[in-house]
Amino acid sequence: MIDLRSDTVTKPGPEMRAAIAAAEVGDDVLGHDPTVERLEHRVAELLGKEAALFVPSGTMANQIAVRAHARPGDEVILERGSHVLQFEAGAAAALSGVGFWPIDGTRGTITPDAVRRAIRPQVPHCPQTSLVWLENTHNAAGGSVWPQDQLDAVAQVAHDADLPVHLDGARLWNAAAATGLSPARIAHHADSVSVCVSKGLGAPVGSLVVGTRAFVDGCWVHRKRMGGGMRQSGLLAAGALWALDHLLDRVGEDHSNARLFAERAAGLPGVRVDLEATQSNIVVLDVAETGRTPIELATELAKRDVLLVPFGVTLLRAVTHLDVSREDVARAADVFAEVVSAPAATGRG
User: How far apart are CA 324 and CA 318, in angstroms?
Assistant: First the structure.
């Protein structure tokens, strides 16, 4: 089975499992799991920030950031396809009473002028803007990467208006690999960052919220309220530390493999791929003109041992990761071509 549904499907290999088994642990809820502390220090250092907090998931990391920056009734400016708006089950509204002001963007990015226009006036009739939210790489836009000068300029607009900036960096490691910039440089103008260790890095569980020491101390309380304390979570942190030591430098291989799949798919009748947006390890395929739905195509692919995920009314998504080789991706592209080219059950081609 060639599983391209997500980079979250990776499984820890023998060396990572050995590191997990050998981990020194304590009780992180009581504040002294030594392996968690090492991971938090390492990630904060990589991002050029003062502190980090290990949490179970990227959604929790994002929701902690929302809660830390915004009050009930406040509003967050973001790009319309952002993960925190589209794929987190309305958590910001349900948990924090916070709303979103979505901006139409280009490949997941928004402009400084658009952000400037979206900031609410300080009048009692409007919700108050409390945060500007950026996502890099951008999942729904096909793994596209922010141009650094544009990201910096948007952050400057926010800061000129005394607004903090949060960077959803679930795939920040991919953004770094794609641009050649360090994670610290990409995140330099963000007041807080969320990063995931269970996607491109292949660790089994976890994300981190990163920022100033005062900000992270506040996030610790929100993690507690959301039930995110994990006791002997050094077992999980050890996997993440091993990944940072051994897998960080290979993330770019996934980008090359995604490009191979994207270019092969883009040449198929009825399939549209935005090759300019395919800048990391995600490929979004518009299959509307094939005459079949994403679910129908995904079902046929699965029968041939290739897994893709339906990603919208006309979209399929493929994500490369460390558990699929270049040969696997080439084979998946062949199978995708066979399925797309085969006559549909309705007789449509």
Answer: 12
Smallest CA-to-CA distance from 236 within 20, 86, 44 is with 20
Q: At residue 315, what is the residue type?
A: L
For residue 282, what are its two tokens? 């995600």
Question: What is the per-residue DSSP string for 125-141?
Answer: TSPPEEEEEEESSBTTT
Element (H, E) at 17: helix 14-21
Residue 193, CB-side half-sphere exposure with 13 Å CA sphere: 32
The alpha carbon dihedral of 275, 280, 285, 286 has a sign of negative
Q: What angle do CA 206, 37, 23 make, to 5 degrees?
A: 75
Three-class DSSP category at 16: helix
Our measurement of the distance from residue 220's CA atom to the centroid of its chain's CA atoms, rounded to an integer in Å, reads 21
pLDDT, tens digit (0-9, with 9 covering 90-100), for 157-181: 999 999 999 999 999 999 999 999 9
Provide the 3-class DSSP secondary structure of residue 71: coil
Amino acid at the residue 268: L
Dump pLDDT digits (tens) for 268-282. Answer: 999 999 999 999 999
Predicted TM-score of the model (pTM):
0.95
Is residue 324 a contact partner of residue 3, using CB atoms and an 8 Å limit? yes
Q: Helix or strand or coil: residue 204?
A: coil
Sign of CA dihedral 230, 169, 138, 309: negative
Burial zone of 132 (CB within 10 Å; 0-12 exposed, 13-18 middle, 19+ buried) = buried
Query: What share of the chain has pLDDT > 90, as a percent?
Result: 96
Q: With contact defined as beta carbons under 8 Å apart, do 258 and 318 qualify?
A: yes
What domains lie within the chain, and their CATH numbers? Answer: 11-246 (3.40.640.10), 250-341 (3.90.1150.10)
Task: Evaluate whether 99 touches 125 at the Cβ level (below 8 Å).
Answer: no
Q: Please name the residue ranges forming H helices in 74-212.
A: 83-86, 91, 112-118, 148-160, 172-179, 183-186
Spatial CB neighbours of 173, under 8 Å, sequence gap ≥ 6: 183, 195, 199, 200, 201, 248, 251
308: which 2 tokens? 């893709």
